[in-house]
Specification:
The protein contains 15 helices and 13 strands. The chain has 368 residues and is of the alpha/beta class. It folds into two domains: 2-164 and 347-367, Rossmann fold; 185-344, Glycogen Phosphorylase B (Rossmann fold, 3-Layer(aba) Sandwich), CATH 3.40.50.
């Protein structure tokens, strides 16, 4: 099967999808819609994947370029003659693919496209409806996004939900991790420093916690547009020296940072099945996360972690202090977290569902 994999920029998620596709018998072409100059993935596109040259990969995407990009993407499909296009997010790559007229089209939600972007304007709603009604098949990583897609016109019988998952061999408990109980307690978060991920909520909560407990610190990986705001919160709270901010780390090095922590925190306002949450679960790390629908699909209160009201820094601080006070329960919760990952977050098993989606999309096109 010839497949065009069409995505907005080149992220660690794209690298993982393409690396797995490279191991299949399919002939895969990668079309990138360029977001900007900053790229968070430093690994090259897998050698067996053919990265195509087209207008959308030459410069940063702007809406004014939509007609030109659509015509050039149509040219691309005529040259490659794929059996299937796999495209997402919905309002950019999948929209352009739908406008090109090519079918079958497998649209893949990236979570934020249905949980946040669709609500930005009537224009985005219309784009979403247009794209989903013209999609042959749909896949997402959480039930909440699948239900949203159906509400915007996707045929519910033409959908597959599978968590993107993690490599359970790479993200595994460290055998020597925290073998000795000490008074020190480390919090960990690696969500991007953008408004949708709520890291500013965590920053405010950490100030409250640190002022009450001198033995708590915070590992805050990543970066983003809220960097100045976060530093201001930490400085004004007098806790900046207790926050470690090493920037972006490589995927190879990432498990080591999970192993340094006692508790993983995700204050995200918008998410599908968060890969970083699954990585934490796989590393046997109890998780404290916002009570948005997608997180509730993974974290069971008091079993493998805790939930707190989305956006509530005061309650988040109180929950952190509770976790410190009940730290003797954390090993059992961590074991439960690992079982959750083994049961539902195995990338190698879950990836097979994408191939099923490909086959069903092609079959639907042939029978239409």
């Amino acid at each position: 099967m010839k497949i065009i994999y069409f995505s907005f920029d080149y992220s660690p998620h794209d690298q993982r999808f393409l690396a797995s596709l490279a191991e299949t018998e399919h002939e895969v072409f990668y079309a990138r819609l360029q977001r900007g100059k900053r790229q968070v993935e430093d690994r090259p596109v897998p050698s067996k994947i053919e990265q195509v040259l087209w207008a959308g990969g030459q410069s940063e995407f702007h809406w004014r370029d939509l007609p030109r990009l659509t015509f050039d993407f149509r040219r691309l499909t005529k040259e490659i003659k794929p059996d299937l296009i796999h495209a997402g997010p919905i309002q950019t790559c999948a929209f352009i693919a739908a406008l090109s007229g090519f079918r079958p089209l497998l649209t893949m939600s990236w979570g934020f496209d249905l949980m946040e972007d669709v609500h930005k304007s009537k224009w985005m709603e219309r784009i979403t409806r247009y794209t989903l009604k013209r999609s042959t098949f749909f896949t997402s990583d959480a039930n909440v996004t699948r239900d949203k897609a159906v509400s915007y016109g996707m045929n519910p019988d033409h959908t597959i939900v599978f968590p993107w998952g993690v490599n359970l061999q790479d993200f595994a408990p460290a055998t020597d991790h925290r073998s000795l109980i000490t008074d020190h307690f480390t919090l960990f978060c690696n969500r991007s420093w953008e408004p949708r991920y709520g890291v500013d909520v965590l920053a405010k909560a950490f100030v409250k916690v640190a002022q009450q407990n001198p033995n708590v610190d915070l590992l805050l990986l990543g970066g983003g547009s809220q960097a100045q705001l976060l530093r201001k919160i930490f400085q004004q709270g007098g806790v900046l020296e207790r926050v470690t901010m090493p920037g972006q780390v490589t995927q190879k090095d990432l498990p080591r940072w999970y192993h340094m922590a006692d508790l993983y925190i995700s204050p995200s306002h918008v998410d599908g099945s968060s890969v970083s949450l699954m990585e934490a679960l796989a590393c046997r790390l109890p998780c404290l996360v916002s009570d948005i629908p997608a997180n509730k699909e993974w974290v069971e209160q008091g079993v493998n972690g805790w939930l707190f009201p989305d956006g509530d820094a005061d309650t988040l601080a109180a929950k952190i202090l509770d976790a410190i006070r009940l730290r003797e329960n954390l090993p059992a919760m961590g074991a439960s977290a690992r079982r959750s990952a083994e049961k539902r977050a195995d990338w190698k098993k879950n990836f097979a569902q994408l191939i099923v989606a490909y086959e069903q999309a092609v079959r639907l096109k042939k029978s239409a």
